Amino acid sequence: MRSSHCINLPFTPIIEYQDPHICGTTHLFPDMGERYQRQRAQQMHVWVLILLLFHISIPASTQLTQTPTPFKVGLILDTKYPIGQVALPSIQIAIADFYTANPNSTKHLIVVQRDSSSNVLNAASAGESVHAILGPGTAPEAAVVSDLGTKTNIPIISFSVTSQSVAPCCFPFFVRAAPSDAIQVRAIAALIQEYGWRRVVPIYEDDDHGASLLSLLVDALDDVEAVIPYSSSIRFSATVDHISSELYRLQTLQTRVFVINTCVNLAVRILTIANQIGMMSEGYVWILTEQLTSLLGWIENESMQGVLGVSTQIPASERLNGFKRRWSRQFLIENPDADPLRVASDLSNYAVWAYDATWALALAAEHLGPLVNGELNMTKPCRIVNVVDGKARQIGVWTQNEGLMGRLRPVIWAGDSMVTPKGWDQPSSGKRLRFAVPAPIDLGFQSFLNLEVDKTTNQTTAKGFVLEMFEAAVRQLPYGVLFDYVPVEDASYDSLVEFIANGSYDGIVADLTITAERSMFVDFTLPYKQSGIAILALAVKDKGSKNTWVLVKPLKPSLWGISTAFFILTGIIIWFMEYPSNEEFRGPWWRNFGTIIGFSFSTIVYAHTERITTNFSRIVIIVWLFVVFILTSSYTANLSSMLTVKQLRPSVSDINDLKRSGANVGYLQRSFVKDYLLKLGFKESRVLPLKSPQQYAEALTTGRVAAIVDETPYLGVFLDNHCDGYQMSSEIWKTGGFGFAFQKGSTLTADLSRAILKITETDESSAIEQKWFYQDQSLCSTKDNPYTSEKLGFESFETLFWITGGTTGLCCVIALIDFYMQNKDKLSEIVADNPWKTSLRKIWELFSKAADNTDNSSIASSA
């Protein structure tokens, strides 16, 4: 049921604030109205504060009189600045519209205006007593006035302050009638994500408003995996020299994406100086926040070319167009020196918000008004604009539920470039990261890592698989990284991890194994090479190996099966074509069966004794014998290889057997494998460090160690050059692989992990590994299978089988056609007069009779 306080309004605000207690209001945005109502129904808070104040301050008797009661409202604006200039005409139009639509109102707003240009506190406290205050225009001013309003119980309604530093939770008498910064920072973050930029530098005014937006921007960028490496705060009173100095410092950074959140005057000064020092050229990105984008029409500055902006979207409508025309006329009356064309073309959001805030205040003076947590609900879409030739051109729309709607339109960037900036550049100066590299490199393992130090320049040059993988990953980063390799002499890998943890270096670039213990002190990237632990020992002949079924191992089961099928099929086809003309292929069924099998498999050794009489049979047998020759030759060669290869195994393949034997064990110096062996129960005196593959071979050959326990990549390098006499066991323990390590919390960790994934998903990673490890790889026997020769499969002989199958089939078809042509009439009678079973039997009898006739003809000719 509608409230008794409901009134029918023939005229509605430009942005609708729906309340179930107000009848007859309609949304100007029907596509958003239903969702808007649901949000308001869920979050509706009553403007109880204002209502109570109004009822306390206005006696009941005056509410019943027909004469409107004066209702004084303070208006604090600085009309020297754009916000004050655009808001004043809107407020006047809103008051006139409201009382035109509500001629029977019991109260009438009387605006008492004060100028805040000199001192906002004086403007707020001076003069007449008021029931509410509209304004002021900036967040610092709003904070001062809101504090005064809390002390005097006077509501403060702001139509321009978006900062969270001034919020109803802190100032209970403060009411926001503009969108919160929490909305626009999410739109900015979506824009950053859309273009793939990972680092952003905010430039904000050094006050509470700027700091408030910075904290919101940090959280929003974190959601899209972007960071703020540096932020710049500039005071409103900053000199040209100070702004220039700060911009020069930003120019030395690698980040080229800047978000400006200052007042209009300061933003103009910043962009003008940025243009002068070359920071508005190609490759730079400048993004303006709401308080600047909404006033772009009032900023005459050529330095704005190519910047992006975010502002609340107010959908076009006839209602809005009508307001825009009336507002332009009113503005020119109060500012006769303004450019009529510019005024007519640009309507600031602040003008619309001032109108709606005034309308809402007038409505609240009459009835109950709606609020959401002390704020008029302003959850609206944001538009993304691109400034071109002094005008804001919309390139996209962002909504809270859908994010960016579709693809953004092409952008003309700073420097009139059409190329999307990558968001970073190699800085001319700045901090160079120091990455620790172990030195000296173990001899024989330089393919992993190798350092060369120029004694003249003391410059370190690094080469090897590890360094090439690292630099390939760095090239994939969406920003530049300045770094130097710093050799760390005679330090274990665990010591290097400690150096990173205490901040001595920024990271480790080495063949460093990822372990759980090390990950407690540093952050690892994803592994760029897999690894595990295995045992290397002298090779001994495997006496226990059994070769019972070695005869069937040269061929795969698929080839055995297909070959057998073709042997039988060829025998059947030969029998079929020879049966009519060759007595050796006729007789009882058991004799025919023996003939087929015997003839088929005798072709393996070319020992078939049956005489072939027809030309088609000769063609089939010639092709088949060629296939048999290829098969038997391949089988013989593969079997010979299997029987002659040495059947070897490592003399030690079990870690527990090695521990029980009491023999010495070797490991690569500086490796974590030593700690692994000690944890397994090996005595430290039995665990011997080795430096190179040559020492591996020497220690095993002389018996200094019974086995070497090491990571599989190193053992693989050893076996590449020492195949004979050594064997590696299967992997006994899986490790995390090789990774790069950085200080805890470093953004490089996640970024390089993504980069490693990119290069491992392409051929680049394989090409780098092939370059450093497999140039002169020897053919070593595998560790798991004693038969090193590869089994032969059907795919190796597929073409041969297609040839013999096609030839056999073709000859068989021609033979059938010949039989049909000779017995065409008889076959037609048999098929026409008999069921199919009887037809088959009589066709066979006809076929057999043809064979008998052939024999009789042969006997007669002989006689």
UniProtKB/TrEMBL annotation:
SMART domains from the xrefs?
PBPb (SM00062), PBPe (SM00079)
Entries under Gene3D superfamilies matching the protein: 1.10.287.70, 3.40.50.2300, Periplasmic binding protein-like II
An annotated Gene Ontology molecular function = ligand-gated monoatomic ion channel activity
Domain Ionotropic glutamate receptor C-terminal spans what residues?
434-775
Q: Which UniProt keywords apply?
A: Disulfide bond, Glycoprotein, Ion channel, Ion transport, Ligand-gated ion channel, Membrane, Receptor, Signal, Transmembrane, Transmembrane helix, Transport
Which cysteines are cross-linked by disulfides?
C723-C780
Entry's family note: Belongs to the glutamate-gated ion channel (TC 1.A.10.1) family.
- Name recorded for this polypeptide: Glutamate receptor
According to its UniProt entry, this protein's organism is: Rhynchospora pubera
Question: The organism's lineage?
Answer: Eukaryota, Viridiplantae, Streptophyta, Embryophyta, Tracheophyta
